[in-house]
Each structure stands twice: as structure tokens, then as C-alpha cells.
């Protein structure tokens, strides 16, 4: 059974974006990029909600092609272009390619089946609405959360109104004050 791993930046009060969707409060650094790259390389499949996929797909396929791309851009673009991507979207059926597959119905069963297929981890970036749904269905196995040192007070919450018991596996404090925590579902 493959693990479904959620990879997400959150505020100290559990928000993933401001009320207007802005994520300008998220701290990123080369140290965090290195850490994230090591985790990303373990996964051979990515899972996205439609909006997050559209943001990712607008940048990553050609991120390494520009003048003076960063090490992170080169590494993540290479991973992104070689990774099978599943996109949960109600209105995107029929647009499948060899590296992009759309899931538009029976999401719980399709994700459960995906987890049973051969391969390594399935990593999910962003997609808070999809993440909340998958948490409620008990389908997320690991949480890699990057807790930014800010309280937003309001915004887009990560967690659903459901109890989820977790066990801390590892924590890492980054120089910019971000706390990386790795939890597994009990």
C-alpha cells in the first residue's frame, strides 16, 4: 500500500491562505527548498486539486528553461516533468495525457485504488479543499507541515471539523523560524 503524503505550508493557527487566497506570508528559503526536494524525490506520483494543478502547471514545466534558473527550479522542474500527476476536478474529464490523469468522479474509490497500485509515495501539494475531503475520508497517511511563524486570525483552514489522531515522527526548525513537522496518522 502506497502512502498518501500531504505537503503543506500553514500558519500557526492552521490557515493555508488569507481570506482572499493570498499566500504572501509563507516563508521560503534555500534551506527549506533542499529539505523539500529530498522529500519530493521519494514520490513518483503527485496529487492536486484543479486550481493548485493549474498554478503548478503554469510554472514548473518550463521553470528550468529560463535564464539562470535556481538549483531548486532545475530540480523541481525535472521531478515535476517526470512525475505522474493526478488532478481531482469535476469538469476536466477526458483531458488525460501520459503524465496527467484527471479524476472527476468517485474520488474516494479512485484515490483508494491509486494507493493500492505499485509505486512509491503519492505526494499532495496544496489543494486545501481536496486535503480536507481526503482527511475526512481517512485517506491521508502522512502530514509534512511547514508551520510559518504567523497567526493570520482568519483565512482558509487546512483541517476539517473532524478528529484526526497523529503521531509525531520528526520536527525540524529552519533558520527563518519555520517549523517543519512530520506526522503519521495513527
From TrEMBL:
Gene3D superfamilies: Dihydrofolate Reductase, subunit A. It comes from Mucilaginibacter gossypii. InterPro entries: DHFR-like_dom_sf, RibDG_C, Riboflavin_Biosynth_HTPR. GO terms for biological process: riboflavin biosynthetic process. Pfam families: RibD_C. GO terms for molecular function: 5-amino-6-(5-phosphoribosylamino)uracil reductase activity. This is Dihydrofolate reductase. Residues 4-178 form the Bacterial bifunctional deaminase-reductase C-terminal domain. The lineage of its organism: Bacteria, Pseudomonadati, Bacteroidota, Sphingobacteriia, Sphingobacteriales.
Amino acid at each position: 500500500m502506497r502512502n498518501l503524503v500531504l505537503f503543506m505550508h500553514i500558519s500557526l493557527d492552521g490557515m493555508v491562505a488569507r481570506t482572499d487566497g493570498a499566500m504572501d506570508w509563507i516563508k521560503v528559503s534555500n534551506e527549506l527548498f533542499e529539505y523539500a526536494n529530498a522529500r519530493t524525490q521519494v514520490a513518483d506520483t503527485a496529487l492536486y486539486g484543479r486550481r493548485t494543478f493549474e498554478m503548478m502547471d503554469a510554472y514548473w514545466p518550463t521553470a528550468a528553461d529560463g535564464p539562470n534558473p535556481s538549483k531548486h527550479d532545475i530540480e523541481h522542474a525535472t521531478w515535476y516533468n517526470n512525475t505522474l500527476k493526478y488532478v481531482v476536478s469535476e469538469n476536466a474529464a477526458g483531458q488525460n495525457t501520459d503524465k496527467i490523469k484527471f479524476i472527476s468522479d468517485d474520488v474516494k474509490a479512485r484515490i483508494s485504488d491509486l494507493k493500492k497500485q505499485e509505486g512509491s509515495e503519492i505526494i499532495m501539494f496544496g489543494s486545501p479543499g481536496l486535503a480536507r475531503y481526503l482527511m475526512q475520508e481517512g485517506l491521508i497517511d502522512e502530514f509534512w507541515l511547514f508551520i510559518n511563524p504567523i497567526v493570520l486570525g482568519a483565512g482558509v483552514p487546512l483541517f476539517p471539523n473532524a478528529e484526526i489522531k497523529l503521531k509525531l515522527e520528526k520536527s525540524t526548525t529552519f533558520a527563518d523560524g519555520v517549523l517543519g513537522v512530520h506526522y503519521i496518522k495513527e
